[in-house]
Specification:
The chain is α+β, with helices and mostly antiparallel strands. The chain has 8 helices and 13 strands. α4 packs parallel to α6.
Length: 348
């Protein structure tokens, strides 16, 4: 059974069916770099240089504490790195406090807070805390992708909900529409979109309007060169294919993993210089070079092949070939063709 993130009901008018949500995405197990304390030996030239990261942490109210028993013994003269831990503490005395004593609070004035208990926050639950009411249906293309936030899979919660969920999903798929509703997650009511996904349903939380920054694109000036647009379209056509996410990989993580292996083996590190593309000065020349180095996709027909396709023109091929020579040569050919046209045909 998929992991449950939220359980409740999906409602369409008077039809309600129990459902639960399961995350549709997962975080990849990327390499995590931790904050560590590496004491500097006294004989090193930068021994008196302050640790900028440590100063920033103290200034923000979190005091770094070394999670290692050797801290009490003082700095390690070998400079061995030790992982640190950030724990809640009393900013006045520096003493560590219990997590059970930490509550939610709102700072209404500088240094003045109003606090809330868990029961008080629980009393704020609204209908969308347990019910996703499909209030409106819109075309999927009407929603700008910039509003999409987190995806979930929507599953029926029990055998009774299977048929109801299938009916709603098939009706939405035949109409080509997606449902808009509300859902409360993590003490926040969010706008959501529900749509059919294969044999099931998917749900996307949507960002609010005040979370979206308006684009500041400049208005285009002048007309574009039609030839440049045609070349760019030809390059795009040669690179057109089906979306396959398995072909993409995190090259930065691969490079970081290789760097870790080199460091563990004690081998010298040769930094690689990032190659930056030069700025495009002549756009037409750059487009033509790009088109020349592109490899046509399998089964694609180039423009040149279309022009010389056999059977495209049924006229005599001899009259389509270019004639080499000067003006006299052309006039002589025209005279010969006229004589052939006026020559009387032999009777059978």
């Amino acid at each position: 059974m998929p992991r449950t993130s939220w359980s409740g009901f999906l409602r369409l008018s008077l039809v309600s069916c129990p459902i639960y949500l399961s995350p549709a995405t997962t975080r990849t197990k990327s390499i995590r770099l931790h904050q560590v304390w590496r004491p500097v030996a006294a004989d090193e030239p930068d021994a008196d240089e302050p640790d900028r990261n440590r100063e920033e942490q103290v200034a923000s109210g979190s005091r770094p504490q070394v999670a290692h028993p050797r801290v009490a013994e003082g700095p390690d003269p070998t400079g061995t790195a030790m992982r640190i831990a950030l724990r809640p503490h009393d900013p006045r005395t520096g003493e560590e406090i219990e997590k059970s004593e930490v509550v939610k609070g709102y700072e209404y004035d500088r240094g003045e807070f109003v606090t809330f208990s868990a029961e008080e926050l629980k009393a704020l639950d609204v209908e969308s805390s347990k019910v996703i009411d499909l209030e409106r249906f819109v075309s999927r293309g009407d929603i700008d992708p910039v509003y999409f936030d987190t995806p979930y899979y929507l599953y029926p919660d029990g055998p009774i909900a299977v048929e109801a969920l299938r009916v709603i999903g098939v009706a939405m798929a035949e109409a080509g529409l997606a449902g808009i509703g509300r859902l409360t997650l993590s003490r926040r009511e969010r706008m959501v979109m529900v749509e059919p996904s294969g044999a099931g349903m998917a749900l996307f939380t949507l960002r609010a309007a005040d979370e979206i920054r308006m684009a500041q694109f400049r208005s285009p000036e002048g007309d574009l060169d039609a030839e440049m647009v045609a070349i760019a379209r030809a390059i795009i056509k040669q690179r057109t294919g089906k979306f396959d996410p398995s072909t993409y990989r995190d090259r930065y993580q691969e490079a970081l993993r290789a760097l870790i292996e080199v460091k563990l083996k004690g081998l010298p590190i040769k930094p690689r210089e990032a190659v930056m593309p030069p700025p495009v000065i002549d756009l037409m020349a750059a487009l033509k070079r790009s088109r020349a180095q592109e490899t046509p996709a399998a089964g694609a027909t180039t423009v040149k092949e279309k022009r010389v396709r056999p059977g495209a023109d049924r006229r005599q091929r001899s009259l389509l070939l270019p004639v080499a020579g000067g003006r006299r040569r052309k006039e002589k050919l025209v005279t010969e063709l006229a004589a052939l046209a006026t020559r009387p045909r032999k009777k059978a």
